[in-house]
Amino acid sequence: KPQARARALQGRAADMGIVGIIVPNLMKPGVTVVVIHRGPAALLARRLNAVRTQEVPACRINLLVVEKQRTPAVVRLLNGFPLSSHLESGVNNDCLANNLAVRQSGTPYVALIHDDCVVSPRWLGLLVATLERDPRMAGCILSHAGRLYRRKAYLSVGGMDEALLMDEDDADLACRLKRSGWRLRRIPAAAAMHQPVAPWIQY
User: Fold this and answer.
1) Phi, psi of 77 (to 5 degrees)
2) Is 85 helix (H, G, I), strand (E, B) or coil?
3) What is the pLDDT of residue 57?
């Protein structure tokens, strides 16, 4: 476990006469925020800044941006964001993009948003705290605007059905999770919403 590895590193450091060593990335649980990107890089920059300033003191935040095809502007943008990565989906299919991202994430929790999603500063912290309190809680769903899933639960039911249209995927995934014995919860205080669809969005 991460905590065990951190304690082992601290123990070895103590044997070498090094005291007070801190290994923050191993001590904290991780959450990956997946951003499906179709708009201009300036829009994405605002969303990434909003994610980076989330009030989640007990959790390490990774960023994973998914595009149909990698664009130089986004590559340059992500160079300024630590713990960020870039994924090319190859198609305009949100379910496929989310499934690819969740499989690549490797963190216990995965949040799914779009680049037109506006989130409050407490959005992610409230969702993570809910899953931390209940090991059978699969996720917190706030429609497409901002969802958080336990990666283990998401993958245990095969993720999203890539044959479904957008707006059907969440309901289908929720039904399959519940049938498998997982729980889901809505957190109204974790405010997240979509801006109006802009003309540059192409499906």
Assistant:
1) -60, -45
2) strand
3) 64
| Alpha carbon distance 140, 187 (integer Å) | 7
**Helices and strands, counts by H and E, the chain:** 8, 9
Q: What angle do CA 44, 147, 155 make, to 5 degrees?
A: 110
Contacts of residue 118, Cβ cutoff 8 Å, sequence gap at least 6 = 50, 145, 192, 193, 194, 195
What are the two backbone dihedrals, phi and then psi, of residue 54, each rounded to the nearest 5 degrees?
A: -65, 145
Q: Say which amino acid occupies 17.
A: G
Residue 82 and residue 65: Cα distance in Å, rounded?
13
Dist CA 201 CA 194 (whole Å): 13
Decide if 116 contacts 197 (C-beta within 8 A). Answer: yes
Least confident range from 21-25, 89-93, 188-192: namely 21-25
**CA nearest neighbour of 203 among 117, 42, 93:** 93
- Bridge partners (DSSP) listed for residue 61: 31
CA pair distance 26, 148, nearest whole angstrom = 21
Would you state the pLDDT for residue 103?
95
* DSSP H/E element including 36: strand 30-36
Residues 97-109 as b/e (b if ≥16 CB within 10 A, e otherwise) read bbbbbbeebebbb
